[in-house]
Amino acid sequence: MVTTRSSSSARANGTPQSNGKSNGAISRKQPKKRVSDDKLDAITKRPRLEEKTDLTRWRMLDEKGRHTWHYLEDDEALQKWPQSFADKWYLGLDTGLPTLPKPTKPLDSVVNGLTFFEKLQLPSGQWGCEYGGPMFLLPGVVITWYVTKTPIPWYVATEIKNYLFARAHPEDGGWGLHIEGESTVFGTSLNYTVLRIVGVDPEHPVMVKARTTLHKLGGATFAPHWAKFWLSILGVCKWDIVNPVPPEIWLLPDWVPIAPWRWWIHMRQVFLPMSYIYEKKWTCEETDVIRGLREELFVEQWEKINWLGNRNSICPVDNYHPKSWLLNTVNWVLVNIWNPYLRTKGLAQRAENWVSKLVDMEDENTDYADLAPVNAAMNTVVCYIRDGPGAYSVRRHIERLEDAMWVNHEGMFCNGTNGVQCWDTSFLIQAATDAGLEQDPRWRPMLTKALKFLDEQQIRENCKDQQVCYRQQRKGAWAFSTRDQGYAVCDCVSEALKSVILLQKTPGYPQLLEDQRIFDAIDTLLTYQNKSGACSSYEPTRGSELLEMLNAAEVFGKIMVEYDYVECTTAVVTALMLFQKHWPDYRTQEIKSFIGRSVKAVKRLQRPDGSWYGNWAICFTYATMFALESLKSIGETYSNSSHAKRGCDFLISKQREDGGWSESYRSCEKMVYTEHQTGSQVVMTAWALIGLMKADYPDIEPLKRGIKLIMDRQQPNGEWKQEAIEGVFNKSCMISYPNYKFTFTMKALGMFAQKYPNETVV
Hints:
- By secondary structure, the protein is mainly alpha-helical.
- The protein has 28 helices and 6 strands.
- The protein has a two-stranded antiparallel sheet with strand order 1-2. A two-stranded antiparallel sheet has the order 3-4.
- Strand 3 and strand 4 form a beta hairpin.
- The radius of gyration is 26 Å and the shape is globular.
- The protein starts with 9 loop residues before the first helix and ends in a 7-residue tail after the last helix.
């Protein structure tokens, strides 16, 4: 349900400004009410929405790296908790920061950038940011609130509405897989549902336009698997339309090639609660909103839809990874033979119990934060079904779902994780050290706070029941976000470890991590290498790529298992090389062998045009930077390495007339370098320059042109403005890294200043 204010505006509430029924028309008939409908409708009726909230009343609370947003309705509370510079910047408000002296050389530009960015450092020592982009995250959270009868405050509902209105496709009014993507059934059906839940009238022009696009795409019967799953929980779809997610697959012995422990962590942690809910075929209580959605989301009359016959129906624009013949066969067997004739109640109960235990292990190992918002929302529903609405597990889940929510000038949305804290903090430290500013007393307090944050966030123990719940060793590691979330990623471990070493080996910084804790990090890093010599992300590869034949997600590619990732491999190489410089006698031969195998893998992964494909940011520019950095760490540069030379030549070939680089997310999808339609981007320009300078590219002129572009784009107060989206996962979904425009730009400028101290550029 949604709590409301007493006043409202018709426009914000979704009252239509015009009829708007010519394309997305819906017919209304009075349904027969059940006995309980009056009471149920009273708590779930359409809320009154404001046009907007007062952005000066929003606050982001930092509790040792945990980020939660709060709206202060009380004026006294407002006075006691003033907005910080960071709050204002996140919300797009005027920070009031002064104009800084105009830079005359690159190091001046770094100083201006740090002067601004320092103001955004949070009390615990790290930097927060939005981590949005995907458009399928918010629906899971909002639907979970709705089905668990969690109150949605008016200010939350209002800003969710504003965000989705702002992010509707400018031409057709739908929503895509991510904020820069074309409209899809996945994005449009789920985000339309969110808007109805938070109280927008179906005849609001935004809704009519979105519904028209959805119907043109075929309606919700042509949604991919994950959308059909969520809509079935609501009762908007019937469970027959959802392809099987059998919990008994979790009973397979570990030696079986398709056993779930072999899957990529995000897949198995999503399909784990999904299988429990699918087994229960649980649906929330019917409401007017749900009855309305049954009329609005489909082209066909709801009562006449062949649910079972539409299990495999999917709109072509959603079908990035079509289901294989093998998966279709397995699904047919499960639906038509296994479930009705062969599956025993005893087996089903045993599978359900084991899945339930694995869900509890995930919750316990993360204090209910869970891996990411997708499985966190699903785990919440599992606990609600199993434990009841008042259970601690449900209440704690609802609290922790707040960790992923974010507010900016457009509204409220859901981040990809509970933050980017350790990752961004590590890169800021490296940007300062690459500029030679770590010994400057001006920046020592900021960097010391950052070091203390990484000290506090190092994971000090392995997971409870690590082997039972299929978790990777993590003692001594760092997560992408926080220690609470607790999922170590090898490149996050590497970048944090490098940052700690760089500062602790600089005179004057506190020695917070003793040698044994550094060794713990190294011990964990050495577990990440694949047989190929390369590294993956969360774990070494456990299963065959043939498992992609069982990829049921449809909207993502390369999702079933871990793969060899250039960026992860190179991060580990550079961390091990830096470690060996200071601790040459610790596991010397093992580290040497690890580096040798990894470098061979990096060289093998180089493409014929000299580039490397990036899996975690866009795209060839990003990975090529990391690859050239790792080659430099072993002494291979433009002058003595054909691999480094080819990498540099690739980057130079992509430099634009204005001196910058421009790469679109389409590169990730097509696996072909594609320029962004808006032109040069400061982040891609910084990545290219870093790679070229790491490789000692001999011609300074292309470097100067790129540096000039970055300096010219810097604002008078020291910041850089947001440009195109920077990150990616699973080839098809983009995600934002807004702090990259600070950390990597300053790193490039600082490296240039150190390498060419007498060059002014401007």
